[in-house]
Structures are given as C-alpha cells and as structure tokens.
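Exercise 4. Each item below gives a protein and its sequence. For each, produce the structure-token representation.

Item: Extracellular solute-binding protein (Candidatus Ruania gallistercoris).
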Amino acid sequence: MHTYSLTRRHLLSALGLGAGTAALAACTGPVSADQVVSGETSNLRSEMQQAALGEIPSQYSGRTNILFWAPWTGGLFEAVSELFTMFNDSQEDVYAAIESVGGYADLNTAFTAALQAKAVPDMVCFPEMQWLQFYFAGALTPLDPHFDNEWNTDIYLQNYVGEGMAGEETYVVPFARSNPLFYYNKTLFKDLGLPVDTQYTWSQLRELGGEISSVQQSGQDVKTFAYSGGDAWMASSWLWAFDGEWSDGFEVMPDEEPIRELMTFANEWVHVDGNAYMAQAAHTDFQTGLVAAVHGSTASMRGLTEAVDFELGAAFMPGEVNQPPLVPTGGSGFSLVRTESQERQDATAQL
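Answer:
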C-alpha cells in the first residue's frame, strides 16, 4: 500500500480549487471600470441586437418577442418550458421564447460568443457567482428599476438575495436553487437490515461496507460509495462535517487538521477498505446497482427516481463531528441582458 503526504497544494489541486481559480481568470474577458452598468450608466447598449429567434407560433404573432437561453435539458427544461407557455397564454403583449443551450458551461461559452457577435438573448440564467464576469463586462443591467410591490427582493430567501447584488444593485434573482443530498439504494439497505430514513455519518457508512460488499452485481462486490471528479461542490459539506472550513475571510485553510482527517478518511475508505472508489460516472454506477450510495444535487432527484429500478432513498448529507453538517447552496438565477431595446427589457421583466 502506498502512503501519500497531503500538502495544501495537493489538496487544492485535487479538489479543483487552484485550477478553478485559474480557469475563472482565463475565461473572464478584459474589464474596465466604465464597462460596469450602474444606476448612473445607461441600461441600453445600442450595438447589442437580439439573437435569432426560432419560428414564432402563429397565435403569438404581433407581440414583443423576447428570448431566454436556458442552461438546462431534460425534465427541468421541459418544466420551465411549460411555465413559459403558461405566461404566453396568460396575456397578449409578449411572446417569451425559450431555447436550451445545454448546461451551465455551454451557456457561458454561448453567451461569451454572443457578446462578441453582438447578437444576444434577452435573459440568461447563470449559477451562483458566475454572473460576475458578465457584470464586469457590462453585459447585464440592474433589475431594481423593474421591481414593484409584487416583484422585488423581499419575496426571495434573503440568504440568496445578496449573492445577486453588486454596488447595492440587483443583477440576479434566485431561481432553481439547490443543495447536495445523499442518495442511497433503499431497497438494498432494507434487504440487508441496514438503517434507513436516518441521519448517517461517514464513519457509519464506512462500517456498513462489509455487509454491502457481501452483495454482488454483475459479478462484482457492490461498493458503498462512489466519489467523482466533479465533487468540489459537495466537498464543502464533507469538510464541514469534519468540523473544518476552507477559509476564514481571506485566510485559506485556517486549520488544516480537519482537512487532513477528512482526506485520510477518504484515502483509507478507498485504498484500505476498498469499499469506496473514484467513479467515472457515479450516477450511472448507482443506477445499475454497482454502488449503494452517491451524492448529487436536489435537481438529481427526479432523474434518479425515473432511472433506477429500486426504491430511491434520499437523506441529508452525512455528518461526522457535526451532524447534520452545513451544506453549500447551488443552482442559479435570472439576469437581464443589456441590449438595445428598452421595450424588450421591460417585457422580459414582466415575465
């Protein structure tokens, strides 16, 4: 068995934090102070025209047409599309078109290219703080002038409101917010007499490994848990469970001991016990019964429920020292694009 010396640099690299910082800097365009839109800057940008719309249904002709680029596919896109249809059928002045551009990374790429081509949508929806690069590029306009008694920041969870503000103005309102959950094969747990519908700890799950691995699927011992290469978001909850924190203000890793305990735990679970592993497609392995538990977003619940042929269990993220632990928030929020048309901005705000 190999042993590994965990350094701060190795940890940041393993979790993608160092690389992510560099990537963020690389994907952010040149910024100057006068690009940022504020109450003292025009909310219009004459060179930014609307991107091409698809065919407009005849029943909606003659309206103000607005375009939303959605960073979703599958069930979530279908659900939001139904809301757009409801809006279009509820009034006769605005036609709101919705187009899927893929995922969040696809939207970032598409919107960056659209700004360069000066052919943009009227509304976008970026995750968490990703909107900031487009705020600094002057691509977004404040929402505050459109607020009224029915629609304003008071109607949202206040924890999310501040994440969408810059310079005391609102550029993002929350939508499709999420947090990580622990998903497990409830049928398997019940068959083995393991606890269900409870608050798990990481140590408890590790102890269950011997019983879970007694079951075979496709000629392999079933693993307890699958890590994946995209776990940086969930890793905040792991560390909080072990009573650690990534930062205190601008000080990175003020106490490294909980992080060492967390990474030692994961290393031994994978390389000593052999009941956890790094998966290429964790949710696929979960759906096919190769692993008993994974974690995922709250947004994963519908897809997993439809994909598995066993009873799906969902629980809070496992705790350890702290149980249940804190969890990070995710999801996205709507932003209004700075275009040449006041009419379309007003119509988009109506939506």
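Check: The first helix runs from residue 8 to 14.
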